[in-house]
Design a protein that fits this description.
single chain, alpha+beta, Rubrerythrin, domain 2, three-stranded antiparallel sheet, 2 helices, globular, binds zinc ion
Amino acid sequence: MPLYEFECSKCGHRFDRVLTLSEVETVKVTCPQCRSAKVKKLMSAGTIKTGWDGYAGKVQ
Ligand SMILES: [Zn+2]
């Protein structure tokens, strides 16, 4: 299962969550430190690489 990195907009705490593709759309991720729901998903290096490869494939 893919690992997602999140950053809390309230306290700035960063944490990782393992979520399936369906879970990441439906599960409400909250900060484990302050319990705020205002968290944003960070782009991992793996995600960026995959996106770039997909884009290059479409261009060619
Ligand atoms: Zn927090």
